Amino acid sequence: MSIHVSLDAVALIAAIVGLGVTAQFLAAKYRVPSVLFLILMGVAIGPEGLGLITPAVVGDALSTIVGVSVAIIIFEGTFRLEYEAIWKTSKAVSRMITVGAVIAFVGTALTVRLLLGASWDIAFLIGALLVATGPTVIAPILAVVPVREEVATTLEVEGIVNDVTAAVLAVVLFKAMTARQLAPGGYVWLFVQRLALGVVVGFVVAGVVWYLLAQVEQPSETAPQTARLVALAGAVIAFAAADSVFSEAGIVAAATSGFILGSLELPHQEAIRQFMRDVTLLVLAFVFITLAALLEFAELLALGVAGLAVVAVLMVVIRPLAVFVSTVGVGFTPSERLFVSFVGPRGIIPASVATLFAVRLLTEAPPSDPSGAHLLLGTVFLVILVTVVVEAGFARQIAGVLGVTEAEY
After folding, report:
1. What Å distances lie between residue 209 and 148, 221, 228, CA to CA?
2. Fewer CB atoms < 10 Å away: N or C end of the chain?
């Protein structure tokens, strides 16, 4: 029996790697973000398709694997960010991750409450999760849609920061559901704890990695390889160290360490950047294909027309409102503001965290809430599926119609 399970696992890994490479090839050939192909492939080999991947094959380790994968993805995203580019768009970025995030959070929660009849707990939990766009979906879009640097940086930084804060906020809200004796100040304290720990751990790990790479002499023939592996180890260690203390603090630590290291002068920095990009493509394939394979269409269909109405309101009302309020007077053209409004697909963080919460709502008592679990999972996955297919899938065409590609400048 153990041999059979091992063979299943090996076949699963081989299939995901093969499909991931195929998705990247198709994305490059047809100039379409790779996440679109990854999701379609995941659905095709999951229980709703060929049935090659089932929850039994994936096992209980999924949440851990997804967590480490997301840490690597976020580390690579922040490592690529340039401080000067962020400084140029500081006003747009700061508004998008504050004012825009609040509009998205409250607007989504109210929409879910009114259209789906969710409890306030579940509505705000969904609202928190769906604030995040995320580097897992934004980076593949920007790889094939060459928009102006300030616009691209705004989308990248918004995705990374909101991924982190949305995950932490969702964890705090979930804990609030299970510990109703918390005073309002207790929610803020839980949030600050996780952010602070992640930042501290990220700084420490970045300092150690910098010292090893910049101050410890390495043989010239092995130095580039060592630099790549030390950087990858730093991403995983930062995540694991912080996450072992507080859930989701690991994502903050990975983001912090990546940004600090990317801002420093490191030996073999370009080699590290390229290596992390290649690793990210593989883990991105694993996460998207696996989670898409575990989609249950019954949960999506159960939401009915109301579910599609929620997605429509998020795409054509709440996202544009958040963007237009956040980008007043920041130097974006009306077409660029429309492009940012129409490109807000949700990614891995909402999917993985929603899956974790749904399992707990189904199995733990308290806060056992089967109906809430299905509503949470169905709504989050429906929004991810539709926004990725429509917004990511047609991002290049949208940019062309609006005339915001770099060639226009």
Report:
1. 32, 19, 11
2. N
Cα–Cα separations (whole angstroms), residue 226 to 216, 222, 260, 274, 275: 11, 6, 19, 14, 11
Instruction: Identify the CATH number of the domain in which residue 139 sits.
Output: 1.20.1530.20
Per-residue pLDDT of the chain (409 residues; tens, 9 = 90+): 444 444 466 777 788 888 888 888 887 787 777 777 888 888 888 777 777 776 666 666 666 777 788 788 888 878 877 676 677 667 888 899 889 999 999 999 999 999 998 888 889 999 999 998 877 788 788 888 888 888 888 898 888 888 778 877 887 787 777 665 556 666 677 778 888 898 999 999 999 999 999 888 888 888 889 999 999 999 999 999 998 888 668 888 998 899 899 888 888 888 998 999 888 888 888 877 877 776 777 778 888 899 999 999 999 999 999 999 999 988 899 999 999 999 888 877 787 777 777 777 776 655 566 777 788 888 988 998 899 888 888 888 888 899 888 754 4
Q: Hey, which residues does 147 pair with through a beta bridge?
A: 405
Domain interval for residue 389: 61-408
Would you tell me the crossing angle of helices 2-30 and 34-45 to the nearest 10 degrees?
Answer: 150
d(CA 360, CA 60): 13
Residue 335 lies in a domain: yes
Q: What are residue 405's DSSP bridge partners?
A: 147
Which sign, positive or negative, has the C-alpha torsion 214, 212, 282, 394? negative
Structural domains in the chain (count): 1
Distance CA 94, CA 52 (A): 44
Alpha-carbon gap, residue 395 to 133, rounded angstroms: 14
- The verdict on residue 56 lying in a domain is no
Q: Considering the domain boundaries, does residue 40 fall inside one?
A: no
In a domain, residue 19? The reply is: no
Q: Alpha-carbon distance 386 to 393, whole Å?
A: 10
Measured CA to CA, the distance from residue 154 to residue 313 in angstroms comes to 23
CA dihedral 399, 404, 406, 409 (to 10 degrees): 160
